[in-house]
Structure formats: C-alpha cells, structure tokens
Amino acid sequence: MTRFWTRLIVVLTVILGINYVAWRWMASLNWEAWWIAVPLVIAETYSLIDVMLFGLTVWNIKFRKPPPPAPADATVDVFITTYNEPLDLVMTTALAAKNITWPHSTWILDDGDRPEMRQLAESNGIGYVTRGADWTPDMPRHAKAGNLNNALMVTSGEYLLILDADQIPEPDILDKTLGYFNDDLVALVQTPQYFINVPADDPLGSQAPLFYGPIQQGKDGWNAAFFCGSNAILRREALMQLGLVGYVKATEKSVRRALAASRTAIKKARRSAEAENPLVEQMLNEVEAATAAAQQELEAGASLSEITYRVRRKVDDAVRTLVAADFSALQSDLEEIAAMELAHVGESGVTTVASDAVDRMSGRDWSPLGALESVHAVLDAISVERTDEAQPIMPLATISVTEDMATAMRLHGLGWKSVYHHEILANGLAPEDVKTMLTQRLRWAQGTMQVLLRENPLVQRRLTWGQRLMYFSTMWTYLSGFAAVIYFAAPIIYLTLGILPVNSISFDFFIRFIPFMVVNQLLFLVAGHGIPTWRGQQYSLALFPTWIKACTTAARNVWFGRPLGFAVTPKARQSGGPSWSLIRPQIIVAVLLAIALIVGLIRLLAGMSEPLGTLVNVAWVAFDLVVLSVLVKAVLYKGFVPEDVGPERPEERNADAV
Amino acid sequence: MQFSYEVKDSYAEVKSVGRLNMVAAPKLREVVAEVVAGGSSRVVVNLAGTDFMDSSGLGALIGCLKAARQAGGDLRIAEVQPQVKMVLELTNMDRVLTAYPTAEDAFGDD
User: Which helix (H) or strand (E) holds A216?
Assistant: First the structure.
C-alpha cells in the first residue's frame, strides 16, 4: 500500500516538477539579468533531477522478509578495522564480536601496528592481523581497503563481517543475516549504521534515517544496495573474484604500457651516438624484436605470464651481454637507476605508477646502455607480479578513499547481488564535535566524487540502468554545494539590488511553484514513513563549503594527481571551545542574508521595490537562515551526555520492517 | 586437500590433490614458498588431482607466481581439470596463466 502511494506521489512530483522547471526555462527567465537568472534555473533543474532520482529510488522500495536459516557449517571471519582508535574502544567492540553466537573467528585488523593492541587481543583469545612483509614502505597502503585486503590473504572464512572499531555488534547479527547467502549470487548484506551517542535533536546530523531506510531499501529494490564500509557481511568468493578480475585487467594494461614504453626507449637509444657501437646496435635490435614479438603474441591472445617471461628473458640476456662487454660503464648507470624511485605513492593512497614511471623512464636522456637498462627497468616494474602493489590481488577497490562504494559497484558489475537488511544489529559512535564531523563528511564526499570521476556509473556497461542510476543518484546529491550557493545568492541580489532573476513574480509563478514544493515535501513524508528528514535537508545545504571542497579536491586528485589532504576521522572528541572558524563561509553568508533583509525592507519603504517580490524573497532568506541555524547548534554542541535520551530506538530494532 | 612436491632436473613439481579453496589456499602459499626457498624457483603446479578451485585458490596461485618470479624463476600450471578451466575463464585468469597439458611440457620450451 505504501508502495502505491509512494509511486503515485513520485509520478505527481515528476509531472509538477517538469511543469515548473520547463516553464522556468521557456517563459520566465529575465535575460537582462542572465548572470543570476541562468545559474538559478540551472540550480533549480539540478534540484528537480535530484528529487526525480530520489523518486526513482523509492519507486522500487523493498521490504524484505527475514531470510531462511543459513547452513550450519558456514564459516565466518569477523574483522574489526582500527588505525588509531583508543584500545578500550577497540576491545569493547572485539569482545562483543567474540560473543556473536554464530561460530566464527574474530580478528582485530590493526593498521596502527600497536604492540599493546596485539597483547590485548592475544590475551583475550582474539586474532590479530597487521600488514605483512610485502607491505614495504614504498608500496601504497590504501588505508582501510589495504588493511582489509591484507587480512583477506591470511584468513579463510567463507563470509566476512566487517566492523569499524566503534561498531558494537549484537550477538545475533550473523543469525539474522547469513541466510541471505543461501542465494548463491548474493555477495553483500549491509545493515544500518546507527549511533548511540547522539541526543534526540541530533545537532550534528549523525543519524542517517533516510539513507538507512527508504534510500537503501529503494536501492535494494534495484539490486543496488550499497556497501557502507561497516556492519556488512561479504562473501569471500565474490571479493576474491573481484580481486582476480582486477588483477588481470591491471596486468594487461601495464604490460601494454610497458611494451609501448620500451619501444620509445629503444627509439631514443638509437638516436644517440653510442648506438653506432655494433654490439649496442645488435642488442637494441634483439630487444626490439622481442618486444615486437611480444606485441604480436599479445594481440594473438597468448598468456601474459608467457609473454612477459620471454621478453624479460631476452632483455636480461641482452643486458647481461652488454654488462660483460662494458661492465664499468654500465655500473654508474645502474646506480643512477637504482637511485631512482620506480613506483611512487600519492598521499591519497592511489598508485600512479605506470604512466609516471614510464614517462620518467622514457623521458630522460639516457645513454644507449642506460636506455636499454631503462627498458629492463620498465618491464621489471610493470609485469605479472604487479610490482606497484604490495599484493597482486586487491579485492577491495582502491580507486577511492571510501573503498566501499567502488567495491559494491564492481561486485554489481560482475553480476553479484546485494541485500539491505533493515534492522539495527550494531551500535556505533558518531563524531561529537563539528570538526570531526566535517572531516568525516568531507571524506565521504571526496570518496564518492573520486568514484564518479574514475568509474562513472553511467557508462558501466555491465550494470543495469537501474543500478547505474542508483549509484549516480548518490553522487548527484554531493553536487548540492554549488546549487546552495546560488540559492543563497539569489534573494540577496534581489533584496539589495532589486534584480529579479524571473520576469515577474506573478500568479504564473505561484501556480507552478507551490504545487511542486508541496508534493515534493509530501514525497519525503510518505517515502520516509514520517522519519525525521529535516536535519538531513538542512545539512545538505548548510555544508555547502564542504561539498564544494570535496568536488574540487577530488577533481584535482583524479585529473592532476594532487593529494586530497585526507585525514582519518578521529573517534575521540576534539578538545577546545566552540570553533566558529570552521564555519566561516556560512557565517559570512548568514551576515549577508541579514544585511539583505534590512536593505530589502528599506528599499520597500522607499518604494524602490514591489511588495510581493520583497515578501517572497524575505521568506526565502528566512528559510536560508533557518537552514544555516543548524550550524550554531552544532558548533555549540558540547558532546554527548548520557542522560540525554537518544532518538527513540525503533521498536524491536525495526524487526517488523524487515 | 594435500600438497606434495618433488624437485626434478630443471623444475620442481608441486602436486595438489583435492579441493583448492579458501581453506587450502594459505597452505599452497606455504608449500610453494618452501620450494622456492629451497632453491627451486621454477615451479610447476600439477592440478591433475584438483577437481575444484575457487577464487581464493587462484589468488594463491598468483601469490605463488609472484614469489617464483621474484626469485628469478616462474610458476606454471599443468593438467587442469574442467571445473578449474571454467574458473580460469570466468575470472579471465586464462589471460595470465597458460595451462600446460603435462608437468613436463610446462618448461618444455625453456
């Protein structure tokens, strides 16, 4: 029944939304003030698409029944990921994890490599994993994804329950979820992230009831429920398959690059004077023949291990002959090359090895011997061993600082299914101060934008259109920062300068705008079954500087290889008084809005502007100020006091909704 | 799952019998590491007795390939059974590893 009403309202929203925005584009623009009129109508179009994507999400909302029991012999590893969280916090989670009733092994994945942590784990009979010997300092670490990928290689459970260090699991978390895997195609079961240290009014917008509710349930209906990094159960086989497919892809790509680079290196070597030396010339001929043959073999479909093995053997032989001929001359070149870093790691943890190393190797003005050695070095760096990574198989995606979304998207691309189980089965801790909260939101947004820019879901051929749009929808929401700026600017411009972005505020405007707004709010009300969504709406506008920063830094990172300036979210509250400086842009906007109110009233009294336009824009400014006011509350928030009664825990942990 | 190995003239042969899955994968890594550490970096994994392999098993093979290559040798596979062949194709791993008919053939050209 809910589904019927939801769909009806979705249809109405789309019709009324298009009716309004089409009219805005075609009949309402004030072209004399195009510099604000056009941005505003674009922002409104953005918002319409946003709500249409939300409508599409809830169109297929899925209310699941509890799964059948899982086979009794299903084996599970419980992973608790930690980096620098306090030891007692980690142990609380680890001991709760140990108490999970389904038979399992519990592991603490300590990326901080802390001896005290190891000792605590061992004395409590809990497994302890840190990075193995392959993770040398020159290898990219890939943060949490790397931590999990490392642990996958030394454990063997069929299923993996992944928990952040602060997410305390219920004993029945596996009993409630493992049964979904009876469907052989299910790779992921995600449960909600719920925070127990949040007061009823949720000043920092920590709970995400709309996301861990209608949005995930809607995505689930499109077989696109997201992996959210914690409180999720994954099928090892699916992850390993992802790792293998990724390995083959990366290897083939780097072999092609290596071959291309070696040809460039040979060409360059030929142009230098030393190439007149008959021995050198002969060597270059041999290597060129080898790489050309390899290229042909590659096109003919020979296996990469054979191709690389043969080429490298030939190159090795050639180098060895040269070394014998002119050992002392080579020695200095070798030292020079040895001193050169082959693989380098971006701060974001994203490798840029191939193109970079290749460019550097081919770009420098090597002597013929050096050039030959550089061919060797390129092939050495980029081969079937995947020497640019600590381990060849990297199941969790490393293209983004938030490994979860990219991993889920790739799993879906391989044809696996995911499940959203709508029942709180773990209790976590949310940030308790603005600074930490902003860091966390920035990280999520940056990670999401990295995925959009690196693996745009809209062009992933192996995803269904529903899945593509579900991923795109979440990415789209993070563009809201740009729209917010325009929504703040437009009423300020009218009230202070009297410039209206529309032809006139008239009956035509109200008859189109108001029904759309009403049905829009109704959609959130019905789809959300009355769950509080206002806090989320406030934050999506109020954090506009964070969203914009996420977009620009992610773009710079993906396109120009710049670091993100990424920080791990601290779990402990940051000390110090209210930090107003963190929200300086918002304060400036609020002051401008207030000034606009005063100037607007003066202009009205002076007869310089029309009453209706002023009224609409005053209402708009008031709305903007109410939105921004959430930040005052957030900055003044002094952290969670246990006496506060948190938002009422859904009865029976939402069991009825499952 | 059982692993045994035999050092021959120009290579070492590792025989894998049973299911090469997530449970056996770490064991395979250990065995091959032992063989390579013993000085035989040219390794053939004979899969005649391996009737089932999962992605973790394949992952272990790649780990072993890396270990052998880093020691200056190579790792090859032989006598692949139908299910394993299917898994190799499913994951595109046949792009990387050539399946040789017999262990003797594996290093036949080299």
Answer: helix A216-221
Give the confidence band of A194 by pLDDT, cuts at 50, 70, 90.
very high
Question: What is the sign of the dihedral through the CA atoms of A217, A221, A226 and A227?
Answer: positive
Minimal Cβ distance to B22: which of A156, A306, A386 = A156
CB atoms within 10 A of CB A116: 10
* DSSP character at residue A213: I
- Token pair in block for residue A158: 């069929």
* pLDDT tens per residue, range A44-74: 999 999 999 999 999 999 999 999 999 999 9
Backbone angles phi, psi at A162, to 5 degrees: -105, 125
**Closest alpha carbon within chain A to B66:** A385
CATH 3.30.450.20 at B2-104, yes or no: no
Rounded to a whole number of angstroms, the distance from the CA of B25 to the nearest CA of chain A is: 8
The radius of gyration of chain B's CA atoms, rounded to the nearest angstrom, is: 12
| Contact criterion met (CB < 8 Å) for B66 and A386 | yes
A129 phi, psi to nearest 5 deg: -130, 130
> Could you tell me how far CA A106 lies from the centroid of its own chain?
27
Report the run of H or E that residue A418 belongs to, with start and end: strand A417-420
Q: Does A367 have pLDDT greater than 60? A: no
Which of A393, A411, A414, A416 to mutate against chain B (most B CBs within 10 Å)? A393
CA B61 and chain centroid, separation = 6
- Cβ-in-10-Å burial (0-12, 13-18, 19+) of A466 comes to middle
The answer to whether A405 and A452 have CB atoms below 8 angstroms apart is no
Domain boundary assignment for chain A: 2-57+474-565+582-637, 76-242+395-462, 247-381
Q: What is the DSSP string of A451-489?
A: HHHHS-GGG-TTS-HHHHHHHHHHHHHTTHHHHHHHHHH
Query: Which structure tokens are listed for A234?
Result: 């994954």
Strand order in the sheet with A186-190: A127-129, A105-110, A76-82, A159-164, A232-235, A186-190, A417-420
| d(C-alpha A301, C-alpha A296), whole Å | 9
Is B25–A156 a contact, with Cβ atoms under 8 angstroms apart? Answer: yes
User: pTM for the whole thing?
Assistant: 0.87
What CA–CA distance (Å, rounded) separates A141 from A391? 10
> Average per-residue pLDDT in chain B?
92
Buried b or exposed e, range A80-112, using 16+ CB within 10 angstroms = bbbbebebebbbebbebbbebebebbbbbbbbe
pLDDT band of A349, cuts 50, 70, 90: very low
Q: Which residues of A touch B63 (CB under 8 A)?
A: 153, 391-393
- Fold exhibited by the domain A76-242+395-462: Spore Coat Polysaccharide Biosynthesis Protein SpsA; Chain A (3.90.550)
